[in-house]
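Bit of a strange request maybe. I'm writing a small parser for structure token strings and I need a real example to test against, not something I typed by hand. Could someone generate the tokens for this chain?
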Amino acid sequence: MKGMKVNKSFAKRMKITKTGKVLTRKAGQNHFNSKAARVRQLKGKKHKEFAHILTHKELSALIPMN
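Reply from user aminoacidic:
Good idea to test on real output. This should exercise your parser:
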């Protein structure tokens, strides 16, 4: 029997850690970074926490296998 569907667009953009935190990449770091300062380029690689926006109920609706 099939379970609930995963929201693929959400799942591709978010990463859930072992402790349950939801991480996302910083915006505006896809391309055109060569002219930016090196510090700004490297800061774009880090993930930021996203979980404070979503409740556990909302998160489980988007990714039910979590």
